[in-house]
Structure formats: structure tokens, C-alpha cells
Amino acid sequence: MKIRIRGLEFRYNSIPALKNVTLDIHESEIVAIVGPNGSGKSTLIKCMDRILKPQKGVILIDGRNIEDFSQIEIARTIGYVPQSIRQFFPATVFEVVLLGRRPYIGWRCSSRDVEKVFKVLKMLKIEHIAMRDFSELSGGQQQKVLIARALAQEPEILLLDEPTANLDIKHQLEVMEIVRTIVKRRGMIAIVAIHDLNLASRYADRIVMMKDGKIFAVGKPDEVLTLSNIEKIYSIKVKIVKLDGTVHIMPLTPLN
Ligand code: ADP
Ligand code: MG
């Protein structure tokens, strides 16, 4: 499995959001997309799930243009967890996660589908809330449920838009550990838009740093998360320390 993105351009009406984005992503890779608000992270992820259609450029999965995939092929290949949680119709956690099985379900869901749903609920440690109403959960719990739904889909590619934004520190680590475990075990690809540079540094194989709709830097965490890159991208002063081979960033002061 390999993703190739070539010369991607996306505009919302006249507002350019992606400018000539070119990127290759390989099997078993976790790629973090970082960059300030409005730099194009969500737009890139939405183009990859074919929610948005780029005006220029192509996205190829194993050499095939995603425009040529059927809707069901997209659903079986790509699991997407949106940044903002839309209003859901009344449904239990179990039902929301079962929706992830839709690309596989014919007229009825089988006991196998139900088993898969419980397996992911367990993996994310939310089986105890299976029968709760989704809309009554905390933001963090809802986020975990949506991740569970994407995993129940058994996709080869996971697109996660700020999956840890509503989670406390422990749940942030839990979610990233789960992503890493399944990506490595199943040879999947995960593309994760994330604000937390330290989580990106720790869990991503590569980091894509975006600014104004363009890829500003791409490479291994310690190649991308440099003083000068972070200063240029975020206009802040930071201190960088390396602990056990992992780069850690401490924000100090904003620059003008
Ligand atoms: P990020 O996820 O990095 O914060 P986005 O991809 O959401 O960035 O946004 C990139 C740019 O596109 C921003 O300038 C944003 O204002 C604009 N944009 C995003 N969504 C829309 C929309 N639905 N309509 C118009 N402009 C949008
Ligand atoms: Mg976003």
C-alpha cells in the first residue's frame, strides 16, 4: 500500500487552501500533519477521503486515482475521523460504531459484525459505555467512539483530524498507542493532523509541516521540528530537548 499525492490544489471559492501539495506515504507509516490554524491540514485530509475534490492534482492509492474508486471501495480503504463532531441522530455508542461496518453489511448485520464492534470497543476501553447515548457523552468519549467507528471499518488508511484534541493526557497517549499498534501490526497507513508537537514527535514516523496551504517541511521528527522551522511556522520561541532519542518542544514566548 502506497499513497502518492501530486500537485494538489484546492480552493474554497476563491480562497486557496492547498497549493501544489506533493507527498508520498508508505505502508506502516504514521504521518503527522502539523501547522498553524488555517494552514490546510483538514482540507488535505478531506481531499484524501474524497469529501473535497481538488481543482488540480491527483491522489493515487497503489497507483489508482481515488476518483476512480467506488464509494464502497473508498469506505473499505479509508477510515476518517473528522475534526469536529457533527450532531448525531440519537444512537447508542454501539450503533455509532456499528455504522463503521456498513461497507461490509448487506441487508442485515451478522454476529461477526457485532463481534468486531465489541472488539474495537474493548481495544479503546469503551465497552462499558456501549449502550450509552452517544450525544450524552463527553467530548473525549465521543472522540474515542468515532475512532472506534473508523477502526470497525477495517480500513487500510486511517485519516485522523486532531484525534487527541478533546482528550486528557492519559487518553491522548492511549489513542496514539492504539493507532501505532494497529498501523504497525496490520501494515496500515495513518495520517494524523495534530497540534501537539510532542505527540507528533513521539508517535509519527514522519512529520509534514504545513504553512499557508503549502508543505513547508517534511521528514523525520528531529529533521522537521527544529528551532528555526518552529519559529518560522508559529512565530514563537521554543526550547528543544532530546530525551531518549525523541525531540521534545517547550514553547517559551510568542514572537512578533
Ligand atoms: P487547518 O485544518 O490547518 O486549520 P483548514 O484546512 O481547515 O486548515 O483551512 C485552510 C484554509 O481554508 C483556511 O484559510 C480556512 O479559512 C479555509 N477554509 C476552510 N474551510 C473552509 C470553508 N468551508 N469555506 C471557506 N474557506 C474554508
Ligand atoms: Mg483543521
Which strand-content bin applies to the residues?
25-35%
Provide the succession of SSEs: EEEHEEHEHHHEHEHEEHHEE
Number of helices: 9
Largest sheet: 6 strands, mixed
Strand order of the largest sheet: 6-7-8-3-9-10
User: How big is the Rg?
Assistant: 18 Å
Q: What is the residue-averaged pLDDT? A: 94
Termini gap? 43 Å
Oligomeric state of shown chains: single chain
Give the overall silhouette.
globular
Helix content: 25-40%
User: Uncertain spans, ≥5 residues at pLDDT below 50?
Assistant: none
Bound molecules: adenosine-5'-diphosphate, magnesium ion
Number of strands: 12
Briefly note the structural class of the backbone: alpha/beta
Structure notes:
The protein is α/β, with parallel strands linked by helices. Helices cover 33% and strands 31% of the residues. It has helices at residues 41-48, 71-77, 93-98, 111-123, 139-152, 169-186, 197-203, 221-224, 227-234; strands at residues 2-12, 15-26, 30-34, 56-61, 64-65, 78-81, 157-161, 189-193, 206-211, 214-219, 236-243, 246-254. The strands form three sheets. It has a six-stranded mixed β-sheet with strand order 6-7-8-3-9-10, with helices on both faces. It has a four-stranded antiparallel β-sheet with strand order 2-1-4-5, covered by helices on one side. It has a two-stranded antiparallel sheet with strand order 11-12. Strand 7 (157-161), helix 6 and strand 8 form a beta-alpha-beta unit. The radius of gyration is 18 Å and the shape is globular. It starts with a strand and ends with a strand. The relative contact order is 0.17. The model has no long low-confidence stretch (mean pLDDT 94). Magnesium ion (MG) binds next to helix 1.
